[in-house]
Request: fold
Amino acid sequence: MPIIDTHCHYNLEPLYSGDPFCFNIKEGDEVLQMKWQDHWQNAQQNGVAKSIIVGPGLKSSQKAIEIAATDENLFASVGIHPERANKIIDIDQAIQELEKMATNKKVVAIGETGLDYFYLKADEGNEIEIIKLRQKELFIGQIKLANKLNLPLILHVRDHDDGAYLETLDLIEKHWQFENALIFHCVSGPIAYIEKALALKKSYFGFDGNITFKKSDSIREIFAMVQKADSKKILLETDAPYLAPEPHRGRICQPMMISETANYLEKNLSANLTEIYQNSLDAFKL
Reply:
């Protein structure tokens, strides 16, 4: 059964050119000898029919478009990750740059965007509130851009408690027009958040290699909730180079590893891979 990887980063190292970047990769690891073209070829040989290359920043979004232009089965999403909000001098200008990129025919979504308070430290005081406000400003700008361009929106949401999750829903309810798919990428969060997200029109939920981890009962619980409520909302992702599934945990996630996550979902969680494939086509209008 073919697979669509709805969230992959061929545009980031070490997948892009084999540069270790910030990763601790052992000398001699095959990843250091590979470029994105090699990873894409390997992914196809392992059942991946199409991939969406997601931009977490302006430069990586442009790379996503350039890579997607080389193959009819590759697509791009342009966006700015919430953790980059505090590094952007002019958010309005950044949104304008995203809009210019998003006119490219290979762009099928806006994102990844959202709120991420996971690494914010309480002892940073007022600075935390400033960072949160900038994340919200950047997020709202991308919500409005997706509305304007009639494109799906890919959400990245992460926190230690309910804060970012509930605030994300609040901003979605205030600004999102529900004309397109709303993708909860690498979904996590409290049950109340998941229940509300499930009730949203055209919401979809991306599951990644971390669902295979031994201690990921909370992610498997979310999968069961979505499956029971509406299995047509389930998507499959890698988030490569992050979140390699078992037994590769701790290594660079290569896009081809999505086949192992798919097999795990089918064998252990009764996932319908044919339906998930169709869900992906529907969500991104492929």
